[in-house]
Every structure is written in structure tokens, then in C-alpha cells.
Write a structure and sequence with these properties.
The complex is a heterodimer of chains A (119) and B (107). In chain A, the strands form two sheets. In chain A, strands 2, 4, 5, 6, 9, 10 and 11 form a seven-stranded mixed beta sheet that branches. Chain A has no helices and eleven strands. With 119 residues, chain A is an all-beta fold. By secondary structure, chain B is mainly beta. In chain B, 0% of the residues lie in helices and 50% in strands. Chain B is globular. Classes of the chains: A mainly beta (119), B mainly beta (107). Chains A and B meet through β5 and β10 of A and β4, β5, β9 and β10 of B.
Amino acid sequence: EVQLVESGGGLVQPGRSLRLSCTASGFTFGDYAMSWVRQAPGKGLEWVGFIRSKAYGGTTEYAASVKGRFTISRDDSKSIAYLQMNSLKTEDTAVYYCTREEYVGMDVWGKGTTVTVSS
Amino acid sequence: EIVLTQSPATLSLSPGERATLSCRASQSVSSYLAWYQQKPGQAPRLLIYDASNRATGIPARFSGSGSGTDFTLTISSLEPEDFAVYYCQQRSNWPRAFGQGTKLEIK
């Protein structure tokens, strides 16, 4: 079964850091690009960032709201994508989803992990 | 940065009726537009890719159309499980943007 499982969410103080993980199974992780999408409480979806597969350089793209603070990386040997979040703000409070990127779009989603930034 | 505007914000219809949801882009995205469905407490699900192609397992009552800046998601005859929030998203340019969503509710 193709599956993505996010972990690492929790309560963190403003200004601190947190790293989310997305563990993939059921497919060849290294063949795919991956994205992170977030959803603040009661709000819509916000695209956070993207990492290409190694075949396409493994490079990244970010939303303006997180650029310079968030970093996406991947470990293909472990089938894990990471979202390193630094200098967290209260407005980063959200459910964070990991998604698989196919040419068709975001075709597989995890269930999400909740990040709460509060003092 | 491309902005996607969805309308209406809320659509109230009854089962069996036809639903028409709109997504307008601030500049051309060619056909690189997808539609996602999200039910309460669940992750979104890909419905339509490249404006008019149904994703795997999506029922034929869902269809998409449009190109350039104007796109439509049509649900031909609403089933009870179709009442949800629908988002469009472009993958033509960076950053990838979502529309603000249309809530399809039971009348």
C-alpha cells in the first residue's frame, strides 16, 4: 500500500525550531518529488515547498512566507522527506501534510501532523 | 505570483443536482490546473489534473474543463459524499498556489 506518514509535530515556542519527517512506503521514494502543504485551523490549503527527485537535482522551491526559515531535504536511503522549520512564528500553526508529486499532481497525501506555535 | 480565485465561496445544493465550481487565475496557467476535494478531518484528495483529466478512481460524475485563466469543476449529479470543500491549484509557475476553496454544502 502506498503510504505517507508525517511525524514530529507538537507544541513549540515562537522563535524555536522543529523538524517534521515524512516516511514513505509502498513505492520507490527516490523516483518522486515531494511537497509539503499546510492548513491553519479553519483555513484553506497553503503550499509550503517542494523538493525534486535526485534525478532532477534534488533542488527545492519554497513559498515566500517560509523562504529562508524552512528547509526541505530528503534521505532516499530511508525513504524520508524532512521539513526543518526555524524561527517559528505563531502564524506557522497548522496541520502539515506531506504529499507525493506525480506528473498528475499531488496524488498521495499523508494524514498530517499538527504544529502549534505558542508561548 | 499567480493568484487563484475560486467562486462561489459557498455553494448550497441538494443531492442529485448539478454543481459548477469556478477557478480563475490571475495569469495564464495553460492547462496546469488541478482540483482537490477535502472532507472534514481528512487530507485532501486529487480529483482532476491538467484541467480535465480524472485522477485514478475518481467517478465519472466529476469533470473539469478550461485552459488559460478560467477553469470549471462540474459534478453532474451530487451524491451525499460529494459535500466537501474543493480547492484548485496551479502547477504552471512557482510558487504553487491554491485557491481559497469552495465549500459545497447540503441545501
